[in-house]
Specification:
- The protein has ten helices and 15 strands.
- It is an alpha+beta fold.
- It has an eleven-stranded mixed sheet with strand order 2-5-6-8-15-9-14-13-12-11-10. Strands 1-3-4-7 form a four-stranded antiparallel sheet, with helices on both faces.
- Helix 2 packs antiparallel against helix 8.
- The longest helix is centred in the C-terminal third of the chain and has 27 residues.
- The mean pLDDT is 95.
């Protein structure tokens, strides 16, 4: 008899919050609050191409889950940040369906973190999961199944999945006393560049204010959501993946972990101020995360100030070890963010495509390693 049994659930509400949270621990983006806000707000659903389909695992003699692998049946590849569009196009050229597929990852959130929620994961558990997902893929005609951005400690490499590498840029706190101490580690030209960018913002009539949920009201949420939509309209031509309800649910669910960094402008001769830009931050025990930003008017270098420099300063002041400002962005290198490797794991059901994608990933991995090495040469720090 197998040591485990399993079920798939189509809503996080099918699992008791206490059981889910016990397994998620202090994980911010796979905790019950974050994932349920996505579902309750309608940001993830069958209609949006993110149908919840979470794998829940029990030991045969227990009624409480011993492991959960949050997952979604996908009808597209938007909002994943591990880009497999070329794989989908190759399927299409051969008159095959790449979608649906199954993905374990946090929707619209390319943050490395726990994917398998479990107190004591074992190699046998990973092998059981692989067997379950392989069988489900065959039954549901998925092209494959995928695990995006797991922690290094998770032993997906013990399975037969294809391992793919990527690069992000994170800032690391070297016990800096203040922002000036951080700048002092840089070459003079890079230090002057950052000071010049910050001075550009300081010399405007803008004031920068950090807000927590005690002073974030409905109007501020409305404004931030406008900023969020405005950014996506400029970049992608749509209003973004997340609904306004998601942000309101989030602010209510984890108020101690959510912050807004806002730019205000004095309104004419009156004493009132109007919001012109905002950036959303989240915080766990040792890391600050910059997630979404937007501005309703242009101001030179305001993006760098709200999304990078304010975040670095906040991390220093609050003794946080790391600042993850989001995926991509080579311009972060000149501002002290360093390249870090990310991993994703993939099963492709079609044997010929699996071999071709494996060959591609092996070639890509050496290219990624070379790219990361090149990135390090662009860092602004003194030798």
């Amino acid at each position: 008899m197998k040591p485990y049994r399993h079920q798939f659930v189509t809503s996080i509400n099918a699992i008791e919050q206490a059981h889910w949270q016990h397994l998620a621990g202090d994980s911010l983006f796979t905790n019950y609050a974050w994932l349920s806000a996505l579902e309750l707000s309608g940001s993830v659903s069958r209609q949006t191409g993110w149908q919840p389909y979470h794998l829940v695992i029990y030991q045969h003699d227990t009624t409480h889950p011993v492991a959960i692998l949050p997952g979604y049946i996908k009808s597209h590849s938007y909002g994943e940040y591990v880009f497999d569009w070329a794989w989908a196009e190759a399927y299409e050229r051969h008159n095959l369906d790449y979608y649906p597929k199954w993905l374990s990852g946090v929707p619209f959130t390319p943050v490395v973190g726990p994917r398998l929620l479990c107190e004591t994961p074992t190699e046998a558990l990973y092998q059981f999961i692989q067997s379950v997902l392989d069988d489900e893929a065959a039954q549901q005609a998925w092209s494959g199944w995928h695990v995006n951005f797991p922690r290094n400690e998770e032993i997906w490499s013990s399975t037969q999945l294809l391992e793919r590498h990527g690069v992000q840029f994170h800032w690391h706190n070297q016990n800096y006393a203040n922002f000036d101490a951080f700048l002092a580690t840089m070459k003079a030209r890079k230090r002057k560049m950052i000071n010049k960018e910050r001075d550009k913002v300081k010399n405007t009539d803008l004031s920068i204010v950090w807000l927590d949920t005690s002073n974030i009201n409905k109007d501020i949420i409305d404004f931030f959501y406008q900023c969020y939509c405005h950014t996506y309209r400029k970049r992608s031509g749509h209003n973004g993946y997340l609904t306004r309800a998601f942000f309101e649910l989030l602010f209510n669910a984890i108020p101690e972990q959510v912050k807004l960094c806002c730019a205000y402008r004095k309104n004419g001769q009156s004493d009132t101020q109007e919001l012109v830009a905002a950036s959303l931050y989240l915080q766990d025990n040792d890391t600050l995360y910059g997630r979404y930003w937007g501005a309703l008017e242009h101001s030179e270098h305001l993006h760098f100030e709200l999304c990078y420099y304010q975040g670095i300063n906040y991390a220093i002041e609050h003794n946080l070890a790391r600042f993850d400002a989001g995926a991509q962005g080579e311009h972060k290198l000149l501002r002290g963010f360093e390249p870090v490797f990310t991993r994703s794991y993939h099963t492709i059901c079609h044997p010929l495509f699996s071999q071709a994608i494996d060959d591609f990933i092996n070639t890509e991995r050496s290219q990624i390693a070379h790219y990361a090495h090149q990135c390090k040469t662009l860092l602004p720090f003194k030798t």
